[in-house]
Amino acid sequence: MKSSKVFYILALVSLLAYLFFHFQDNHTWGGLLLLLFFLNLAIAFRSHKILKGFSYTLMILAMVSVAMYHPEHFVAMGSFKFSSLIIPLLQIIMFGMGTELSLKDFSNVIRMPRGIVIGVVGHYVIMPVVGFTVAKLFNFPDEIAAGIILVGCCPSGLASNVMSYLAKANLALSVSVTTISTLLAPFVTPFLMRILGGSLIEINFWHMFWEIIKIVIIPIIAGLVFNHLLHGKSRWLDKAMPTLSMAGIAFIIVIITAAGRDNLLQVGVLLIVATFIHNIAGYFFGYWSGRLFRFNERDSRTIALEVGMQNAGLASGLALAMGKLATAGLAPAIFGPVMNITGSALASWWHNHPPDDDKEEEKENA
To answer: Who has greater pLDDT, 344 or 209?
Structure first.
C-alpha cells in the first residue's frame, strides 16, 4: 500500500505539471506528462482490488496521449507504415482466441441453445440499430458515422468473456455467444453494414466477407487445430497470449489515434459521448432482453455484456481494409477503451452483488 501511495503522488505531480504547461500554452511536454500521469495511476490501481481492472485501460490512455501529441512517431518509420501491422496483430489475437477454445465449447450450443440464440440475435439487432440511431442523432460526417455503425455490426469481443467471469455471470454462455457471433460475422456484418451504412460509405459485401474470413475465421480455426494437436503441451503460449493480445490491441488503438488525430480534434468529445451512449445502451437493452425472455440474473448479466461489448479490433481492421482508417476507424479506436472502462465498472459492481439465482429459481418453480 505504501508503494501505491508513491505512484498516486507521482501521478498527481505529473497531472499538475501537465496543467501548468497547458495553461502556459506550452505543449512540448504535454504528451510525456500525460503518459506519466496515466502510467503512474495504472500502477497504483494494480494494488487495489476494485480499481485493478481499470489499469489496462489507463495504460492505453497513456499511449493514446502520446499519439495525440506526437502522431508522427506512430504513423510510419521511414517508408514502413505502422498501419500495415493492424491486420497481422488482429490475426494473432484471433489465433489466441482459437487456442482458448476446444470442441467441448461448441457442445454448449446443444446444452443451452435458447440463451445463445437470444444473445446472438440480441447482439446483432440491438447494437447495429443503436449505432445507426446514434450516428444519425449526432450528425457526424458520413465516414465517421459509418465507423459507429461498423462497430455496432461487428461480433462481440473477447473482453466480454473476461468481464462475464469477473461479474460472476455465466462464463460458458458468454464464450458460446462470442464464438457463434464471431463465426456468423462474415455473413452478418457485411449484410448489416450494407443496409445501415451503405448510404454513408461504399460497402463491397464480398470484399468485407473475405476480410473477416482472413482476419477472424482462418486464425481461429488455426488456433483450434493448434489447441487440439498440442493440448497441454504449450502452457507457455497460454500464458503469453493474453499479454500479447492486450499489447496488440493497445498498439492498434495508438496507430488509429495517430492516423486520425486531426479528425479526433474536431469531433473527439462528441465521438466519445456517442460511443459511450452506444455502449451503455447495449448493456441496458441486452440485460432487459434477457429478463424479458425470463432468464435468471446470471444469464441476463451475460447477455448484457455480450450485447454491449464489441470486437472493436475487427472494426478497426475492416476500416483499414476499406481505406478509411483515419475516419471510419476512429469510433472503434474510442469504443475499445470506453467499453473496457464501463465493462470493468459494471463487472466490479456485479462482482460485489452476486446473483442469487437459486432463490429466483425456487420462486419460479413455486
So the answer is: 209
φ/ψ of 310, rounded to 5, equals -105, 165
Residue 129 lies in a domain: yes
Residue 64: which domain range?
1-70
User: All 3 cell numbers of residue 261?
Assistant: 488525430
Residue 270 has pLDDT above 50, yes or no: yes
Place of cell 455467444: 177
Determine which helix (DSSP H) or strand (DSSP E) holds 353, and give its type and residue range: none
Would you say residue 76 lies in a domain? no
Q: Are residues 54 and 166 in the same domain?
A: no
pLDDT digits (tens, 9 = 90+) for 81-103: 888 888 898 888 888 877 777 66
> Is residue 213's pLDDT more than 90?
yes
Is residue 228 situated within a structural domain? yes
State the pLDDT at residue 365: 43
- Give 272-286 pLDDT, tens digit per residue: 999 999 999 999 999
Number of structural domains (the chain) is 2
Whether the Cβ atoms of residue 160 and residue 174 lie closer than 8 Å to each other: yes
What's the CA gap between 48 and 337, in Å, rounded?
20
Q: Which three cell numbers stand for residue 362?
A: 425456487
Q: Domain check: are 57 and 106 in the same one? A: no
The rounded distance, in Å, linking the Cα atoms of 264 and 276 is 16
Domain finish residue from 70, 104, 122: 70
Q: Please, which pLDDT band fits residue 359 given cuts at 50, 70 and 90? A: very low
- Round to whole Å and give the CA distance between 148 and 134: 8
Q: For the chain, give the mean pLDDT.
A: 85
Angle between helices 297-308 and 357-365 (to 10 degrees): 120
Helix axes 171-197, 205-212, angle to 10 degrees: 160
Given pLDDT bands bounded at 50, 70 and 90, which one contains residue 75? Answer: confident
Does the residue 128 lie in any domain? Answer: yes
In a shared domain, residues 297 and 225: yes
Residue 235: partners with Cβ closer than 8 Å, 6 or more residues away = none
The answer to whether residues 210 and 283 belong to one domain is yes
User: Among 9, 37, 70, which residue terminates a domain?
Assistant: 70
